[in-house]
Design brief:
488 residues, alpha/beta, 6-stranded mixed sheet, disordered C terminus, Zinc Finger, Delta Prime, domain 3, Helicase, Ruva Protein, domain 3, 8% strand, disordered N terminus, two-stranded parallel ribbon, Rossmann fold, 48% helix
Length: 488
Amino acid sequence: MKASRGKSLGDPGPSGQQSFFQSAQRLPDFQPLASRVRPRDLTEFAGQKHLLGEGKVLLRLILQDQIPSMIFWGPPGVGKTTLARIIARQTQAEFIDFSAVTSGIKEIREVMNRAEDARRMGEKTILFVDEIHRFNKAQQDAFLPYVEKGSIILIGATTENPSFEINSALLSRCKVFVLHALSEEETLELLQRALQDPRGFGEQDIEIAPELLKQIALFANGDGRTALNTLEMVILNSDSSSGKTQVTQELLQQCINKRSLLYDKKGEEHYNLISALHKSMRNSDPDAAVYWLSRMLEGGEDPLYVARRLIRFASEDVGMADSRAMELAVAAYQACHFIGMPECGVSLAHMVIYLSLAPKSNAVYTAYEKARDDAANMLAEPVPLHIRNAPTSLMKELEYGKGYIYAHDTQEKLTAMRCLPDSLLGRVYYTPTAQGSEARVASRLKEIREWKAQRDPLQRPQESGASSEIQEEQNKHTEPEGAEKQEK
């Protein structure tokens, strides 16, 4: 935990208070390159032009020294911590660097007491909390009263979605700024500066081709820290016996032989990618679907999880339009169970392409949702006596099964017997589409319903009152997180 007094850009501050900001110029050689060349002001900061470009709101807040409590949300290596330190240097406030990884309630209370003392003296305190999502609810709640009365200006950094990981009470008092992964051009800018900056490799004679720098930028995948660490590894392992360090393609390939994909099997990216896969298949786009599948599998996702989602998709989005989809999805799950990764990746790709190209119908999904709505919100009426089972003499005396007609004993193999409670007679849950084999199902179902309605007008089909709401929900349907959490 570190504290220092911030000053305006270009103002070195009083003696003894500038070491926090100027130490980067005097860091020993064993410090990682990313630490040595950390930007000192906004002119050196790469990326986030949507927040820090001319006229953008965050830039105005920094320059006017009107910093509110805020959350920086973005992937690793995009400058969340660096930006907080630049703000500390710019603003007229005490700056405290706080880590959620190593600090607990005791440390929080100590810092809050210091901040409260400073407030009484008319001084502002900026508290930067890295990895704020690692704090539990009680720890996050400890900040609330101090944020509320202005004892601290809280700046939290997180790689997780604040909506899920930050208490709503605390989140409502903070402005959320979303930081984006660096573009290839912005990453190249970082690398070029590291090669020219005396804090980096500016005082060394280094020869590295532009295409090699581009490969490093691509490998970093938007992570500036990864880009700088890779550059440092390549240069430190290159031949410099002649006085000039020459970086070769062969050495670079040894350092970047496998790229780490951004993927957290328990975090937001997990839901983002499975949602992308689901929606691409629903939109009958096999190319996009296979791409998102590969992103998940190469990122380390359990193939059985993907296979389970495909089984769900087979009923939810294909349904009766191609009932074989369910059989094949189950077969794909079994294939994954039998052979595992990496071989089962092809089996999953096979299934993903099949589902993408299959005719689509959400009629099964909609039918269940409407029926579930009635089951949850209407009176739970008893099962009609005539369709109850009567295995005992007492149950027969109570007229269980009385009036039941065995459909196979009729010429049509069909009866007009009522199977719904009286309050639900005529209720329609399943409305088939004209897609694929469901068109034949629709024709058959129409004949059945008309035959029954002729013999019992009360069974004439009537749409459920919840149908429009269910359809509206399906239109905006996304990957059902609840199903995933319940499944676990």
